[in-house]
């Protein structure tokens, strides 16, 4: 057997009995949309993040889209985000009718406030910092800047559930924080799911309407809304998994420590920075290295042959995707994002990864580069 890239099936095994009991309960109640499990998970998630509101929605893309809609963002507006994010951050902006404005990343793959400031125009209404790979951007200065300029900050926390910096959870710095519960996220449902968190009861009230055809009560439609609800079977699975989130995130950090010790002497790799085991500002949703010498694809294939699954998040920056050619960027617009897209490789990372797996991965990578030196 090889080494899994992510392990939602292992997580499922852990919660299976408890979850099946909730499924039976939901079945007996006959409430398959909304209901007590959705509100139970929403309250538990809000309290875990230290915010007053959590609103379950259909997926992480909708969370971002509905957050922008709740602020009234639309045609004529601009929203700034990262060139090296998953495409969904940008498609959520696009579908509001606003124009996505992209910025480059630093060498930890994160957006910087200076780059955001330089991209602001009179049309800028919001910025979406992306906590990519599970790293929380230090948003202290961003928050002050957002309050001073009136440019709303919505955090994309799709990859950073349970992460925090200085005791403050990812998702609680901006006016809203948006989460994806896609199954292999570090808090993953058993299908699609998402949530928006906030400390604003007004925004929460609007979001509850927007996700449900524009009204909270049946046939009362106060706003033109959408249909994007977290379903109770997903909510109860998430409720079961939430109890393990901190333990699983800590395991991921420990695994990152193993990678650091077993890959440290491979000169061709650039590893993520060191993170202390109790430093919750990184939850290692992904463990991303850079492969030098233009050998990423070869290494990826070599590992695959050995049963070690890897991925590239993401091989093409958003500004170079055909879907967003109309934004008018081109090759050279975001040099860091472009360079890293050709070098990054996500190694296996999940709550069941063992040190022996990391040792095997390390020795396969070493033999790959050693063979290259001989030939
Ligand atoms: C950074 C980022 N933003 C947004 C999303 C969209 O989430 P979803 O797939 O749940 O729509 C994802 C995950 O897929 C993501 O990784």
UniProtKB/TrEMBL annotation:
Q: Does the entry feature the keyword Lipoprotein, yes or no?
A: no
Q: Which UniProt keywords apply?
A: Aminotransferase, Pyridoxal phosphate, Transferase
Recorded superkingdom: Bacteria
The record ties this protein, via Pfam families, to:
DegT_DnrJ_EryC1
Any one Gene Ontology molecular-function term assigned to this protein's record: transaminase activity
SUPFAM superfamilies xref list: PLP-dependent transferases (SSF53383)
Q: Fetch the InterPro entries from UniProt.
A: DegT/StrS_aminotransferase, PyrdxlP-dep_Trfase, PyrdxlP-dep_Trfase_major, PyrdxlP-dep_Trfase_small
UniProt xrefs under PANTHER family: 3-OXO-GLUCOSE-6-PHOSPHATE:GLUTAMATE AMINOTRANSFERASE, TRANSAMINASE
The entry's family comment says: Belongs to the DegT/DnrJ/EryC1 family.
Q: State the name under which the record lists this protein.
A: DegT/DnrJ/EryC1/StrS family aminotransferase
**What species does this protein belong to?**
Paenibacillus aurantiacus
């Amino acid at each position: 057997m090889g080494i899994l890239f992510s392990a939602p099936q292992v997580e499922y095994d852990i919660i299976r009995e408890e979850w099946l009991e909730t499924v039976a309960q939901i079945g007996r109640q006959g409430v398959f949309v909304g209901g007590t499990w959705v509100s139970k998970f929403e309250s538990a998630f809000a309290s875990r993040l230290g915010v007053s509101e959590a609103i379950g929605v259909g997926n992480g893309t909708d969370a971002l889209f509905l957050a922008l809609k709740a602020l009234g963002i639309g045609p004529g507006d601009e929203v700034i985000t990262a060139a090296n994010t998953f495409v969904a951050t940008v498609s959520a902006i696009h579908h509001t009718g606003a124009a996505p404005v992209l910025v480059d990343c630093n060498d930890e793959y994160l957006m910087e406030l200076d780059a955001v400031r330089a991209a602001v125009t009179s049309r800028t209404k919001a910025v979406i910092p992306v906590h990519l790979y599970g790293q929380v951007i230090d948003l202290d200065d961003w928050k002050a800047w957002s309050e001073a300029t009136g440019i709303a900050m919505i955090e994309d926390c799709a990859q950073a559930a349970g992460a925090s910096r200085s005791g403050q959870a990812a998702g609680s710095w901006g006016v809203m924080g948006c989460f994806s519960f896609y199954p292999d996220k570090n808090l993953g449902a058993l299908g699609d799911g998402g949530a928006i968190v906030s400390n604003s009861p007004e925004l929460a009230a609007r979001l509850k309407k927007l996700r449900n055809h524009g009204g909270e009560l049946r046939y009362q439609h106060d706003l033109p809304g959408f249909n994007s609800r977290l379903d109770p079977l997903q909510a109860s699975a998430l409720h079961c998994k939430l109890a393990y989130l901190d333990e699983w995130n800590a395991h991921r950090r420990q695994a990152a420590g193993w990678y650091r010790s077993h890959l440290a002497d491979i000169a061709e790799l650039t590893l993520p920075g060191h993170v202390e085991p109790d430093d919750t500002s990184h939850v290692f949703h992904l463990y991303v290295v850079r492969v030098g010498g233009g050998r990423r694809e070869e290494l990826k294939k070599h590992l695959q042959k050995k049963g070690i699954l890897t991925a590239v998040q993401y091989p093409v920056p958003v500004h170079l995707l055909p879907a967003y050619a109309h934004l008018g960027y081109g090759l050279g617009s975001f040099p860091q994002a472009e360079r890293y897209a050709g070098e990054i490789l996500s190694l296996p990372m999940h709550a069941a990864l063992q040190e022996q797996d990391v040792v095997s991965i390390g020795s396969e990578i070493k033999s790959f580069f050693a063979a290259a030196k001989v030939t």
